[in-house]
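Postdoc handover notes: sequence design on the structure in folder B. Input tokens:
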């Protein structure tokens, strides 16, 4: 059984307006709050008070009741800001305790903590860190208070080091160094009708018992549940379209999703109005959450009045038959929906008017453009410029380019002038590896071509969305696989996005089943996602670091995320056997952040079907520089030694899986140049009469080392 509780220690450091006397660092107001307990453990207060006094601080105690009922970091920071001295600082220390396993007669607990140092009267941390303290107890009945008391010496040491490092620094400089930009925090997708019904007066003919009917969800329901989203660790809320839309099913297909728009400039009354729009904006701002608004610019509803009123506004090319045809893709009707011709000046004016209208109503921080691959770049580029001119923060233009090919996706980002795009290549790789038994090299190889993108850290990563099978269905309910997939999602480059209901186990393969009604219930995945979001937000290596592959096997993967002197190892084992890992020289192990791992010296042991995160540091990180390595590949046992062969795979060097652009094999030898500590995915191809014949085997995955290497491969083996 997993026991979980949350401990908050709030410290408000308030400096004097006069220079600090020698040996005195200033005033610290200390608040200790334990959820579910009226009085915090006295030993926690006493030891922290003594530790702070040793640093030269004068300590006073702030009563814990001020934090009662507030579970999110942002809410606690707001309270600390309200109760701090004007010219002082605030230090927020958050701890969580969890009983995880029993080892050799001892019960293992994890005490995890997060430190946030902020100026007084402010709400954003300018210095943050997180840590993990393992605690072993002999008695199963030992509660949280006993466990936290055992961890206090380590906690005091962490607080001591943190304050020593940051108390003399410039808040602005520290904020620029470590603060996670709001636009890089996790995204939570809300399908408005399916999320929460906050106003029954606008329900009309809503019927929650019918899968294709409206269920009554609205923006009032979103406002009512913002605490749920915030406590999950999300920093951005993406809402599906709220413009006036079709309300009747069409040929058995439901319309509740809002993407069959009738008038882009008007509210859909089922979802909200100007009053609730203002309230939504205010409540988001109060929590420090960003708003991403979904805009449909490709089409209107089948029966939208403008279809008859302005027929020249629409393409007349018929339905899309070949989605690879660039002309059909832009001028054809997708699923028969009337396709707007954005080259018509009146259409551009109409869409621009809609953008300005929604900006005036909601002041979105970002806009998600639906179906970008079906719109010409000659429209999206100037339209993106318009959207950027309306908002005060960047990035603001997010494109849905439903494309699993990395080359095409990277080209579309540039062509359409997007700030961010959804990483469908990574999605398909994740689904293959975690749900379908694919080789772990497939996700590793995706990182190997990150250099193709303007900025791969701006890609939005996801395990599912409202157009795809839910991860719970895609993985056939395999809870361990889903757990590993979530861990990998939050520890990989990019901005993770979660679909509403993932945290409570919503399932479904196709619409409308994959767009089911939200349930606000307790579920283990809710705590899991919140923990992963907290770990990611607190470590620059995870949210902004570079990616290197240290080791790969058929079933396991070791990824290094690093930024400056900070590093985190991401460890994945899909197999049923334990994996022993030897780390590079000068890479020093730190705390285990997630997972049950055996660590010592330069060795790690990763259990079967497991995932883990470990802090690392040392001189090794300082030596890492972007570089390319040559790999000499010797090819043997070709079916026709006199034939023409090519090495074809993922990335520009290997032809982007196009045989005619692959690397030619000459005299049984080919030289590949690739980023060091990456993974290359490829296959051999024989060219016969201008037609490719692929070798009869799965894709190959090659780990590219830091120095020149020679490998041997055989056709089909």
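Designed sequence:
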């Amino acid at each position: 059984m997993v026991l979980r509780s949350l401990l908050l220690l709030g410290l408000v450091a308030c400096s004097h307006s006069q220079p600090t006397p020698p040996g005195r660092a200033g005033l610290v107001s200390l608040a200790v709050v334990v959820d579910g307990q009226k009085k915090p453990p006295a030993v926690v207060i006493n030891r922290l008070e003594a530790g702070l006094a040793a640093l030269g601080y004068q300590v006073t105690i702030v009563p814990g009741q001020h934090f009662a009922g507030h579970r999110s970091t942002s809410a606690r920071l707001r309270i600390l800001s309200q109760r701090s001295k004007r010219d002082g600082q605030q230090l927020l220390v958050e701890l969580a305790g969890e009983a995880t396993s029993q080892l050799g007669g001892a019960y293992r607990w994890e005490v995890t903590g997060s430190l946030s140092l902020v100026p007084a009267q402010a709400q954003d941390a300018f210095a943050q860190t997180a840590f993990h303290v393992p605690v072993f107890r002999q008695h199963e009945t030992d509660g949280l208070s006993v466990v936290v008391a055992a961890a206090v010496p380590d906690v005091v040491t962490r607080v001591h080091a943190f304050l020593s490092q940051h108390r003399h620094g410039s808040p602005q400089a520290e904020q620029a160094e470590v603060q996670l930009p709001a636009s890089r925090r996790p995204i939570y997708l809300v399908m408005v009708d399916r999320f929460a019904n906050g106003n029954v007066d606008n329900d009309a003919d809503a019927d929650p018992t019918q899968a294709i009917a409206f269920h009554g969800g609205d923006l009032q329901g979103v406002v009512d549940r913002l605490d749920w989203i915030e406590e999950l660790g999300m920093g951005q809320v993406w809402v599906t379209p709220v413009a006036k839309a079709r309300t009747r099913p069409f040929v058995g297909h439901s319309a509740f999703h809002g993407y069959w728009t009738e008038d882009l400039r008007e509210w859909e009354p089922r979802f909200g109005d100007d009053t609730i729009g203002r309230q939504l904006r205010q409540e988001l701002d109060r929590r420090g959450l960003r708003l991403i608004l979904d805009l449909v610019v490709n089409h209107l509803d089948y029966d939208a009045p403008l279809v008859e009123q302005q027929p020249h506004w629409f393409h007349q090319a018929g339905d899309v038959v070949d989605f690879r045809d660039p002309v059909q893709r832009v001028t054809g009707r997708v699923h028969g929906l009337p396709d707007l011709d954005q080259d018509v000046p009146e259409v551009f004016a109409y869409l621009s008017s809609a953008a300005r209208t929604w900006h005036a109503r909601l002041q979105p921080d970002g806009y998600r453009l639906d179906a970008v691959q079906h719109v010409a770049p000659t429209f999206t580029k100037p339209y993106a410029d318009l959207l950027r001119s309306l908002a005060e923060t960047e990035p603001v233009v997010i494109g849905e380019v439903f494309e699993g090919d990395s080359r095409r996706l990277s080209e579309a980002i540039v062509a359409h002038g997007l700030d961010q795009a959804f990483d469908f290549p990574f999605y398909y790789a994740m689904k293959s590896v975690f749900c379908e038994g694919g080789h772990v090299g497939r996700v590793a190889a995706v990182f190997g071509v990150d250099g193709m993108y303007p900025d791969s850290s701006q890609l939005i990563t996801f395990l599912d969305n409202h157009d795809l099978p839910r991860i719970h269905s895609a993985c056939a309910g395999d809870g361990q696989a889903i757990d590993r997939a979530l861990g990998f999602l939050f520890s990989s480059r990019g901005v993770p996005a979660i679909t509403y209901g993932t945290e409570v186990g919503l399932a479904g393969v196709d619409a409308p089943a994959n767009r089911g009604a939200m349930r606000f219930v307790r579920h283990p995945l809710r705590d899991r996602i919140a923990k992963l979001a907290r770990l990611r937000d607190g470590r620059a290596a995870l949210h902004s670091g570079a990616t290197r592959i240290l080791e790969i096997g058929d079933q396991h993967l070791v990824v290094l995320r690093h930024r400056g002197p900070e590093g985190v190892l991401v460890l994945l084992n899909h197999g049923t056997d334990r994996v022993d890992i030897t780390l590079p020289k000068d890479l020093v192990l730190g705390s285990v952040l997630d997972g049950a791992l055996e660590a010592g010296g330069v060795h790690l042991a990763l259990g079967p079907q497991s995932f883990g995160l470990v802090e690392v540091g040392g001189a090794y990180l300082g030596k890492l520089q972007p570089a390319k390595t040559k790999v000499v590949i010797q090819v043997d046992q070709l079916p026709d030694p006199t034939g023409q062969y090519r090495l074809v795979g993922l990335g520009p060097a290997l032809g982007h899986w196009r045989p005619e652009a692959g690397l030619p094999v000459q005299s049984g030898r080919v030289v590949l140049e690739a980023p060091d500590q990456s993974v290359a995915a490829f296959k051999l191809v024989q060219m016969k009469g201008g037609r490719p014949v692929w070798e009869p085997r799965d894709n190959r995955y090659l780990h590219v080392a830091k120095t020149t290497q020679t490998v041997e491969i055989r056709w089909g083996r």
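Context for whoever picks this up: The longest strand covers residues 89-103. Don't rerun without checking with the PI first.
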